Amino acid sequence: MLLALALMFVGLCHGSTWSTPSEVLAAIVGRGEETFVIMQWRLPRVAAALVFGRGAGTGRRGAPGPDPQPRSAART
């Protein structure tokens, strides 16, 4: 969880121009010159990456599949 938050913060800093961590923090609280770019362009991109990455990581591993032998056939 902590790693995901750190990577999100780095993702907010990364763009066509690098924003410093202090600029990102200022934008998050609503101050600074980079507020529009960080909150409107970078934050949705980083949030989508987190959601889709989390979804890809929770595949159907170990999910129960169909029974190899139906219960009615097992009794006979």
From TrEMBL:
Keywords: Membrane, Signal, Transmembrane, Transmembrane helix
Signal peptide (residue range): 1-19
Membrane topology according to the record: Multi-pass membrane protein
InterPro entries: ABC_BtuC-like
Protein's recorded name: FecCD transport family protein
One GO CC term on file: membrane
Organism annotation: Herbihabitans rhizosphaerae
Compartments where found: Membrane
Residue ranges, annotated region (Disordered): 55-76
Gene3D superfamilies tied to this protein: ABC transporter involved in vitamin B12 uptake, BtuC
Superkingdom assignment: Bacteria
Keyword Signal appears in the UniProt entry: yes
Keyword Chloroplast: no
